[in-house]
Amino acid sequence: MAHEKSVIISHRRDFDGIACAAELLRLLDGSVEKILFTNPNSAEILSTISCIKGLKDSVIYITDISLSDDSYSSVISALGEIHSKNNQIKWLDHHPWPEDGIKSMKEISDMLICGENKEYCAAELVYANLCRNDDTCKTIARLAHLTDFNIRPEDKELDADLVKISQCIAFLDNTDADSEKLRKSLVENVAMGSLKGKIVDEIYSQYKKSEAKNIALLETTMGSIRLGKYVLGIAFAENLQSNMACAMIKKETSANIQVFVTTKDWSAHVRSDDGVDSSLLSKRLGGNGHPQASGFTLKISNPKMEEAIKEYTENVFKAAKEIFG
Ligand SMILES: [Mn+2]
After folding, report:
1. Which of 22, 69, 166, 242 has the fewest Cβ atoms nearer than 10 Å?
2. How many whole angstroms from 33 Cα to the centroid of ligand 1?
3. CA distance 68 to 295
4. Is the pLDDT of residue 270 over 80?
5. Hey, what CATH topology would domain 5-202 get?
């Protein structure tokens, strides 16, 4: 039976994920039934998969999402059920994957490009494997590379429009209907090859309203610890673009490992200088990622924000001491 319909599942929080969806939107043109966004932790991935339970005879593209060590079996078994209803699964990712996860996923996927890739981000993999004849996809993929390989806002190569749209994407990393709607418009904008326009300005003005408050929280929660030749800096805000927040932490604390925690979902975004493998910390704390850019999410037991931040910081410092101390 022909597979005419398609569903896109991509990473919600960064430009690479949005760029993958934009490229696929161009490639698949009128056949896209749904675009869903998620983040790479099992709870969110499972809840996203539950949105396509009834799907049949379709192709599901999953991009810029990895499987982590502790949770892949539940995700793969949910996808196995989807696959058994004559759906194809095509998964393109560039983050590290557990070996056993790759093995089991291979059995139920029609295209699987995964595992750590030091040269290409997910949008570049989508371009190279699915839409090579589309020059706009090539441009989108090149832009995603700049944002995804930890090129910080102060680097000249990263132009202002790209920083601005990345801030918009991080700001929209919510599941409410308004955010979903704005994000869909943003994907359509990127699919036209544009990082600018009315929709970007609209989201950016919302983001700007929240920025001052977020930066103030970042500054008051900033802490650091020395671990031999390393300094780890940590700070919290409700929501800021991760590279930007980590650059601020680095500036304030001179840390070569920066941990930015988003308090709205307690996800931590870890960045580090060349030669410092901070993904060891993320992996120890149940997360995943590249040596210079990774992430994890800790559960919080204290309902009071101030106490929760203290608890979170202590847990990160404790793990960091064990690894780098
Ligand atoms: Mn990526």
Report:
1. 69
2. 23
3. 11
4. yes
5. inorganic pyrophosphatase (n-terminal core) (3.90.1640)
